[in-house]
Every structure is written in C-alpha cells, then in structure tokens.
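Ticket 4471: requesting a sanity check on a complex prediction with adenosine-5'-triphosphate. Repro inputs:
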Amino acid sequence: MNSTNHYLDQFCTYLLFQEKDAEKVFYGLDDIEGESDIIIVEGEMDKLSMEEAGFRNCVSVPDGAPAQVSTKDLPPEDKDTKYQYLWNCKQYLKEVSRIILATDGDAPGQALAEELARRLGRERCWRVKWPKKDEVNHFKDANEVLMYLGPQVLKEVIENAELYPISGLFNFKDYFAEIDAYYYRSFGDGFGISTGWRNLDELYNDYCPVPIDGLVIVACQKRDKRKGKWIYATEPIVHWSFCIAYVVPGELTIVTGVPNSGKSEWIDALICNLNHSVGWTFALCSMENKVREHARKLLEKHIKKPFFKAGYGGYAERMTEEELEQGKQWLSDTFSLIRCENDALPSIQWVLELAKAAVMRHGVRGLVIDPYNELDHQRPVSLTETEYVSQMLTKIKRFAQHHGCHVWFVAHPRQLHSWVGTPPNLYDISGSAHFINKCDNGIVIHRNRDPDAGPIDRVQVCVRKVRNKVAGTIGDAYLSYNRVTGEFVEIK
Ligand SMILES: Nc1ncnc2c1ncn2[C@@H]1O[C@H](COP(=O)(O)OP(=O)(O)OP(=O)(O)O)[C@@H](O)[C@H]1O
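Returned structure tokens:
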C-alpha cells in the first residue's frame, strides 16, 4: 500500500498528493520488495528520474528533509513520529544489505541522509556525490542531473556511490599521505632525535640515518652444527606454520606476556599468515600504535624487506617504491582501522559496534584489540572488577560468535614482583581470573633475553588453553624473530 498517488492532470503535468491520515510509507515501496540493494531519494520526481537511469529499486521519502540533524538521542520507534514511514516499512528494509542515500546535496538533504543512516545502520549505507554544475555549485538532485546531464551520467553517479562515513572506522588509505611521508623521510623529526650519545642512540633509536660501518644487524640466528654455537644468518631458517592450535572463526583468544615480549608483533605476523593463506581480512583496534608505525610493521612482514635503509635493517635491501605502492594497496584491501580520534579512551561497546560495521561492510574475519588497559573501563560502582571483566568478555564472545569473527584480545599480566624471567601464567593477567575462564584460547608470548640461555631472538609461544580439542592442544612452539622484517620463522 502506498500513501502517495500520482495522476496526470488535463495539462499532462504530473500530480502527486498524499491521502489524509493514510499510513506513512515510502513512495515506490513495491519496487524494493525482495531487493538487496536499494536507493532512497528525497522526492517523487527523483524516484522517477532514477527509473529513467535504469534503477527501479528506488523509493522516495514521503515527507522531505529536516532543516538540520537532531542533536538528541534516537527516540524509541513508537515516538519517532517524523520518521514513522521508516518503521512502517521495516519488513521491506530488514534484508537489504546496501542502501544508497541519494538525497539532495543541500544542507537539509544531507541532514536527511544522516537521520536515515542513524536509523538504518551506517554500515549498510552509501552516499552519492552530485556532479559539479560550475566552479562552485553542484547539481542538487537526481532530477537535475537527469535533465541537464542525461540518464547515463545519473547512472554513473549511482554506480560511484561511496561508503557512508562512520566516525572511528578508517582504512589505511586515509593515511597514505602520512605513510608516504614516513617512507620518503619528509617528516622532520618524526624519526626521533639523537640523544647526544652515539652508543645510546644505537639502542634507543631504531632509526639510524646513516648505516654505521661495521655494525651488522642480523636477521635471525641458527646453530652452527660444527661448533655447537649460535651464529647469525641473514635468511629466515624455515617458514612457520601454526601447528599446535588452529584459528577457529568466532572464538576469543586472549594473548598475554610481559611488556615488550613481542605480543603485538606476533599477532601481526599471525594475521599476515592468515591473510596470505586463506585471504582473511581484519579490523585492528591497536591503541598503542601510530598508524604509520603499524603500516610499517605490517608492510615489512608482507613484503619481507625493511621499510627503511636503517640501523635495524643492516645491509638488507630496503623495500622499493613499487613494493611500497603494491603494499599500500594490500593494506587498504586487508585492514579496517578502529581509531578513537580524540583523547578519550574507547569503550568496548564502541569498539564492538565499529567492528560490527567492519564485518558488514568489509567482511572482516578477525578483530584485534590491543591492549585491554587502553580501553575505557568506567565500571559501575555496583560491579566488582571480576564481574565487570566477566560481562565485558561475554560481550566480546557474543560478538565473535554472532559474526563468525575471531577476536584476539591482548591483556597484560599484573606486575610480577619476583619475576625470574619465566613466562607468566594466564592467571597472572591483571584484573580477573575470568580472562582464562572465559576465553576459548589462551596464549602467552615469551622471549628469551638471556644470551647464555639460548639465542635472544627465540620466541616461545605458550598455548596454555584450547577449549575446542579439534582446534588444538596445549603446548609450546618455538619461533625465531627476524628483527629486520618482523617475520617469525619456525625453529625445528
Ligand atoms: N623475539 C624478539 N627479539 C627481539 N626483539 C623483539 C622480539 N619480539 C619483539 N621484539 C621487539 O620488541 C619491541 C616490542 O614488541 P611488541 O610491541 O610486539 O611487544 P609487546 O609485548 O606487544 O609490548 P607491550 O606489552 O609493551 O605492548 C619491538 O621493538 C619488537 O621489534
């Protein structure tokens, strides 16, 4: 049923009117029944223009646009009088996966797009860019574009619709200028400033502007069979495969380890492996990393060359400009970034909502939250920390299961006063024993820091909990960390 009727009057003008007290619905509602992609426009003439351009899957709002976006929270469905037509049509909209908001280009039209996106879910909304009319102005709507530029141009406008922006959800593409400036070293003091002591700089500043003669930084180490000693090698020894535990969609893995043990590096290496082997893509909520730093680390693992000709790269060849370009494309195809752009800490609810948008928009199969203590934990006074952690982990697990998305959640151990250099326990995680109780998998990353005890690049991946026996079993795997490229290789 449609509340708007249209007739041709005696002068062959198109007449549209709405019946008084009829239920408010979209105009053209029957045309979107069963469609997965739909277009929403602001007037009936725009709906008819879309048909001229070949799009029948289009509806028009019945009531025009608001003057501005409301600053209030969304009212409940039955109180949302101005947008009642949306709720009356919800059966038609439920299964729609892509909604192109082609409202007018003026301020009220954009306010209408925002109000619709708030109610329909930004993650399934796209928006159009109306073409330029002259140096300053743009065409206003579908009807104007049809009249002045023709149906083919209108068709192209719709085909080139872009994702509706979601505050907090980014792509590496949004940071390409910064990544380029980092690679081409046009950043001023962005690489760090000398401490004034050359021997301290070598330790403190990974970046050495000029490689120091005679300083050989090595890729990884292997045992010299004849002398029984650890010697340096510039090539990875073997490629590692994840053999103790497999990664199961929809599970929650807690990763812990003492500070600087390589937790973030190991997760990055794991997700690169998963992308290379099965094409998974990921949402990254990595609060301690600058975007360009994270881009560098991921690119080094992907391209298997250092980003810079710098101290840590030794004599290894730096990635070329062509490799950088190919790598940037890979970054933007593979990762969505969840970033809180102001100085507030993000809440878990906020992170999961954006992760849901990344699942729906980009089909991500994994989410990394790194680390727990950088989230906003405004715990209600009525909850103990244990109860709070339990509820938070339940939310994360629900998200993981519902969206078939594996979540890696990094949590630090509490301060270990009498730490003797051994791997911490999952029960040492600061906050609550629920971290181990509630997760599906629990992993401790540990690395040797004592040259007498073995090579210092050796990493121990301690699989301490695997709920699902099909996925694996508890045990330890040893990997070797390649400081030049950040890759991890298996030690047999
Ligand atoms: N096995 C290793 N050998 C040598 N250096 C390593 C090793 N693993 C990681 N590193 C280096 O240690 C630094 C910290 O690594 P990473 O950020 O992954 O640690 P983390 O455990 O996540 O740290 P934090 O707890 O502080 O977040 C990086 O500079 C990385 O290159």
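Notes from triage: Residues 181-490 form a domain with the Rossmann fold fold (CATH 3.40.50.300). Leaving this open until the requester confirms.
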